[in-house]
Amino acid sequence: MNHLSQPKVLIVTICQLSSHSFLFLVYVIQRTLVKFKHLAMKSHKHNNPNLLISTHTHKLFLSSSPFNFLISLPSFIYLKQQRFTPLFFFFFFFLCFSLTTSMVASDTDTDSGPVVATTALVTFLQRVQLTALRSYPKKQIPDPKSYIDLSLKRPYNLSTIESAFNDLTSESHHDQSVPVEKLEKFVKEYFDGAGEDLLHHEPVDFFSDPSGFLSNVENEQVREWAREVHGLWRNLSCRVSDSVIESHDRHTLLPLPEPVIIPGSRFREVYYWDSYWVIKGLMTSKMFTTAKGLVTNLMSLVETYGYALNGARAYYTNRSQPPLLSSMVYEIYNVTKDEELVRKAIPVLLKEYKFWNSGKHKVVIRDANGYDHVLSRYYAMWNMPRPESSVFDEESASGFSTMLEKQRFHRDIATAAESGCDFSTRWMRDPPNFTTMATTSVVPVDLNVFLLKMELDIAFMMKISGDKNGSGRFLKASKAREKAFEAVFWNGKAGQWLDYWLSSNGDEPETWKAENQNTNVFASNFAPIWINSFNSDEVLVKKVVKALKNSGLIAPAGILTSLTNSGQQWDSPNGWAPQQEMIVTGLARSSSKEAKKIAEDIARRWIKSNYLVYKKSGTIHEKLKVTELGEYGGGGEYMPQTGFGWSNGVILAFLEEFGWPSHLNIEP
User: Fold this and answer.
1) Which residues are catalytic?
2) d(CA 549, CA 102)
3) Residue 576 and residue 560: Cα distance in Å, rounded?
4) Given this model, what pLDDT does residue 59 score?
């Protein structure tokens, strides 16, 4: 066995433990090595050739978190000879056992929620990411995600690369940094670049000016720009490489059966909820084959994992995203009448529906009459730093003193990522204090909107497939959830649906309390208007329109995400394509003339601002600064991104819905 393979076996073995046992054992090993270090140093002074532990590790053993300690463990111990001695293993595990029995009463207070293990490659790439953080000057640190998206270069295997990395870091500085030029040389020698395993794909159904494309856009200037936006689908169309399919353990990118549309920039993989608004745009672009391929890919993920992943990467297997797969199938069927797709989708959707309505995702709120309302929350299956942003998460958690506090915080961060709205004051108990993130304690309005839509979609699909009994069951479930919206979320005084804060951990039913409604104003408070049963209620629409007009959310370039400028990207002054589309579509479907007028006005503001940004920058952006026309958004943990899948889709969908008269100027 290679002299560095045994610590790898140790790490792989402990990674298979349950989350609380796993992190506790890491802590025990850390404490054991602190003790063992003293013996090792003494042994080194007596010229023992079997073991050398670098002299700067004592501080790291004592002060680093279990997470940082674990991913750096192979760098801490460097063997001069071929293997650990049997005496070492006996002594090492004897100390582990002794410390475990002595600390079990006081140190087992850890988060016991579900955790889905990641891969050995992801764990190793986190070590590379951490070393890069320590090595580059602060203003030159590359995007952490770029390291987790690397793939192994042939002919090297992971064991060989780990050995080379341990050699590289064995003589690192006291702060665990290495010379940048050596790190860059190592990455170039042993890895293919981030995104190189995702190849360009020419869509078979793309035409530069498809028949019937945006016939109601009369303004030629706007029409020409719309053709350019339509043309961006070619830039974002990709397929996974053959290597991903044949040797998936060499990649963090997951194999998929069909080509994909990616968001763009740093997002080099397909994302779950983004795909709904991408498909909305693809329908306008008459790219039905591509749209069906996106759904096929997502269904394959549900069949493999039991849920659609946040994105098609190995490090996203611990969480999902807003459940919009049924809505995607519905949009495609609504245009193509593809009954075969519907029949294939039903069993997949039933599996996904179970995921969102059971286990930790399921919550029960009891009203004043003793009636139990079943709703859902986001709940990531992860309680450590997110691999793609582990450096950011570790720093954010540095102020917590106990393992339990850190684990809960990391789970709430990952859960915010599952919501798709990462990050926002909406998930904070004491906004804008980021360390008060408590996403698992929120029963979100919009998640339950998506699940209500899923129930209605499944009922519809079962009906056209001939399953009347199944259709009836899901209609009944949708009625029950509608009642829950009235009992739990609706606030008549505000004229909005408000998120609900749980008083406990959500595992048991709890009684509804008025003070647990989050009275802060968010765009998501108006998301239910997207559902036909709400936007068809004239009295309700009138109340919601009044509340929206008075909310302060309607800005010069669209709808604000919130009224709080926290520096987080899902807060003011930003606006996002999904929330614009849901609210605008819901208002436009109502019978209220005022609601329809507001919907069209918001859509035109959004279109115009995207146009102005495009003309200035040459790109479509992920989000806009809606407090000003023609400005893209910022904030959050990464630089503004361009491309951009769902933004393109909503622009095209709005132009198809509202058109653009020839006399209406789009320039300021």
Assistant:
1) 422, 622
2) 62
3) 8
4) 39
Buried/exposed 216-234: b ≥16 CB within 10 Å, e otherwise: ebebeebbebbeebbebbe
| 41 closest CA partner among 1, 90, 76 | 76
pLDDT above 70 covers a percentage of the chain that reads 84
Question: What is the pLDDT at residue 640?
Answer: 81
Question: How many H-runs (helices) and E-runs (strands) does the chain carry?
Answer: 24, 18
Angle between helices 120-135 and 180-190 (to 10 degrees): 150
* Contact residues for 55 (Cβ-Cβ < 8 A; gap 6+): 41
> What average pLDDT score do residues 396-419 get?
97
Beta-carbon contacts of residue 401 (< 8 Å; ≥ 6 apart): none
pLDDT tens-digit map of 188-234: 999 999 999 999 999 999 999 999 999 999 999 999 999 999 999 99
Please name which of 107, 63, 126 lies closest in space to residue 403, comparing C-alpha atoms.
107
Q: 279 is written with which tokens? A: 């498909």
Separation between Cα atoms, residue 89 and residue 609, nearest integer Å: 64
Contacts of 612 (CB under 8 A, 6+ apart): 629, 630, 668
Side chain identity at 237, as an amino acid letter?
A: S
First vs last C-alpha separation in the chain:
70
- Going by pLDDT thresholds of 50, 70 and 90, the confidence category of residue 109 is confident
Q: For residue 28, what pLDDT is reported? A: 46
Is the whole model's pTM more than 0.70, yes or no? yes
Beta bridge partners of 500: 443, 517
